[in-house]
TrEMBL record:
Organism (species): Salmonella enterica subsp. enterica serovar Ouagadougou
GO BP annotations listed: DNA integration
InterPro entries named in the record: Integrase_cat-core, RNaseH-like_sf
Integrase catalytic domain segment(s): 1-25
Protein known as: IS3 family transposase
Length: 43
């Protein structure tokens, strides 16, 4: 279980993904969350 948790953490927080413009999934999530906030601020 610990090995799986480490792998998931590395996959989501440390390993860049080419399909996400070389961002980690966590960076991509934060980037899109912030973009959504700034878009909503103008509505």
């Amino acid at each position: 279980r610990e090995i799986t948790e480490r792998w998931v953490s590395e996959y989501n927080c440390e390993r860049p993904h080419e399909s996400l413009n070389n961002m980690t999934p966590e960076e991509y999530r934060q980037h899109n969350h912030l973009a959504g906030i700034s878009k909503n601020a103008w509505n």
